[in-house]
Please model this.
Amino acid sequence: MFDTLSEKFSEAFKNIQGKGKISETNIEQALKQVRTALLEADVNFKVVKEFIGNVKEQALGEKVIKGVNPEEQFIKIVHDELAKVMGVANEEVNLDRKDIAPILVVGLNGQGKTTFSGKLSLHLSKKKKKNVLLVPADTFRPAAKDQLITLAKSMQMDWFDSDLSKHPKDIATDALKFAEENGKDVVIIDTAGRLHVDEELMGQIKEVRESLNDRNPEVLMVADAMTGQEAVNVAKSFHEAVGLTGVVLSKMDSDARGGAALSIRHVTGVPIKYISTGEKMKDLELFHPDRLAGRILDMGDVLSLVEKAEESIDKDAAEGMMKRLEKGKFTVDDFMKQMDMIKNLGSMSSILKMIPGMGNMLRQVGDLSPAEAEMKRMRVIIDSMTKAERDDYKLVKESRIKRIATGSGNTEAQVKDFLSKFRQMEKMMGGMMQMMKGGGMPGMPGMPGMPGMGGMPGMPGGKKKKKGKRKGPWGGGFF
Ligand SMILES: Nc1nc2c(ncn2[C@@H]2O[C@H](COP(=O)(O)OP(=O)(O)OP(=O)(O)O)[C@@H](O)[C@H]2O)c(=O)[nH]1
Ligand SMILES: [Mg+2]
Model:
């Protein structure tokens, strides 16, 4: 997400580094680079023009704040402008109502409507405690009904058995009647897509929307973020034809540029309400312009990270582990549980990017896949250990090493390597517990039960560990 933009922005800011104060000449080169970066990210040219104008005006008008260097001031201005362009605050679907909330999901072919409908149902039922009904109303592609029902079943979500021989507006009417009779709060209607914006599609969606108008529906258009300006144009057409209440950007996990995210709100006036960040049902985020601006500028997004951690981490398991740690016990099983918790949060790079300053570091490190591969290798080694060995790794001697190596498809040297790393980690855990007793865990404020993060393999500086000191906010990577 926003990778290219982050990189270009950080290069642009270097121009102001070490300058005494902000002046027209000082920021000229930086602004030029910011402009190019935005255009290359496929941001709408009108948005870029206005953006640059606003940043320049504020930067030059900025009163000199004592103690804040020009680079930081400039970054703050860019941050606030980025957030403003994207919408300032998060807007969710409006559920503050007594009657049933219909949510109509529209968009072109293959943009992620059905996937999003499933994700939204999970989000609203889990986080907002709503009783949700999923309604397949794609009468063009009968398989779409099965697709939605399969998703619904996988989440134990209720779904409506639509009669696909009817017009979608009648399906919507039937579904709402069913919802009323069955005490539902929210009805999510997944509609058909088309290859292009065409009259037939718009006509049909218009009719469905009109049939719902008395109920004040949410009309969310799902757009593939990777399509950039095309997504902006399509959103414009849909908004003009049917009146959208929100946009959802899908496939943000694959979009490195961010042009759609930065343009849609400004061009159409329609807020982006959610972003879809993967194929799994839990991969949905609220669209927080200010936090995303922070992510673009490598300021991290600790708030989202903490929220994610709170959602994905089994608090009881984490607390149990902390208790054991306090007693000085840290086993291979504990380590494995920690790895699983971290895995639930997302890919390593997506987690690290949410930590201030890590974006830049990640760019220097480049590819994280060796670290991910190492984690996978450790996993198979651990899987080949017996329960007793996982409880006490010291049991693992020569013959057992041989057995584990054969069982996990690794060499004996690799198993030994894992054991020696684990030994170091155990030692570090002891040290960390001492520190915590003395007040607070270093580097991870507010993160519940993440004692193993300092042991993330393959982080920068890791290979030097044997001789060198710990480096960086992660305790330098143990391996
Ligand atoms: N990586 C990634 N893939 C996604 C995301 N959302 C959807 N997809 C994938 O995109 C493809 C299309 O998604 P659907 O939800 O079927 O799209 P749709 O808009 O309902 O498609 P039609 O009903 O055919 O118009 C599927 O393979 C999804 O798994 C996302 O956020 N990230
Ligand atoms: Mg679909």
